[in-house]
Amino acid sequence: MPVPVPRQRAIPAVEGGQARAASSTGGPAQAVPAPGAPPGQAPPSTSRDTRGDTGHGGDAHHGGLHNGSAPTGTAPLTLLVIEDDPAGSLNVPTLLDSAGKPIRIRTARNLTEAERLLTDDVQCILLDLALTTGGRTAADVGPEDELATLKHVLRLAPRHAVLALTASEDAEHGAEAVRVGAQDYLFRDELDSRLLSRAIRYAVERKRSDTAERRLTESKLRAQENARLERGLLPTPLLEGSSLRFAARYRPGRSRALLGGDFYDTVRTPDGTVHAMIGDVCGHGPDEAALGVELRIAWRALTLAGLCGDELLSTLQQVLEHERDNDEIFATLCTVDIAPDGRRAGLCLAGHPAPLISRPARSRAAIGADGAGSPAPPVAELLPYENGGPALGLLPNARWPRRQVELGGEWSLMLYTDGLIEGRTGKGRERLGQDGMVDMVRRQLAQGLRGEELLRAAVNEVRDLNGGELTDDVAVLLLDRVA
User: Fold this and answer.
1) pLDDT value at position 419?
2) pTM score
3) CB atoms closer than 10 angstroms to residue 278
4) In what order do the strands lie in the sheet with 262-268?
5) Is the model more confident about 176 or about 224?
């Protein structure tokens, strides 16, 4: 049983606030004048739950705070005291919160009653570690079980601050309670209003701080796991044995995401053909990103299995139809298969914009005003393509013709998604478009930009023209062949 605590000294109203004495019959609390108070003066009072003191539990007030704070104009803190002394010798002194309001007190005699009284307006629990558990006290159980009651309360109230109450000669027991999960421990025979009020406020704030820190840590871990997952889902080009140079740039439209609904890949098959693909699932959320990954992996598997052109795209459409959430989801796609000699390629478009190709100017030098010669900038233009097929998922029996295009001996081929061309070009409603993109790339080529530098400059300029981050995903892939 708990050690009886001597009755506390009377606390003046200016120091300890307001006090009430509980009726022995469990009825309404009767006011007890503070020492020295004039006759007839209303005494200071604390919001003490008298029904809880008789073992019935409860609170005469409701609507407390959920976050453990008590700003002006709101209900004060609520303390749940869990102790089983039938004589009620545990005397909890008058308490004030940080706003000077009386802290409400509920009393439970056992864990069953505590669970009923543990409503959302309780912010802190004062637990007597000597509480009887199954007919035994903490002194009757072994060292491994002496904190079983505390552990049960912590499981019962994981979001609440907990203060452990122990005997003054058992500081080690109190320290162990803190190690298990309590916010602090107090000595039973040293309770006073200032100490306990401060301990409650400290415990509530520490619990809030610990909870915020834990949530931040969990958020960081989830972000790291998502980042590792998304990086793992991004493609690694398989170009071993090819003389082509590869570069790619990816910017998802979702905030703080690494992966969007755009997807791309590049592989070299055993016959020396280099296959490149870029696509875009309508939308840019996590579901679209997942579908894009599925289509990319399916494309790589089908390509390595020897499929190409219409046969490959027809199979990809079946994959899309099986994996999409609803019939309105579709995907655009551009595939290129470059011959082993690198001078020609087969091109298929499924509702996707045509690639951009840049080649050296035919005249290798331009004559300036001073008569000096300088290399002419490469010529950039869209690959001519007509009669492309529809986007995947729109028509059940669609066909995607494959067109043969001549590349030449030295070239740079850029595949992109519409996020690169649909950004605005200022405060008006005009968008960059394919013609604007071609002009932009020509300027950047004239500045000597190539490879990853060219892609980085292109994406950054499109973002700057848009006046901020692009809302759509952007993927750009570049293959270069140097004679």
Assistant:
1) 92
2) 0.57
3) 26
4) 262-268, 274-281, 331-338, 344-350, 403-406
5) 176
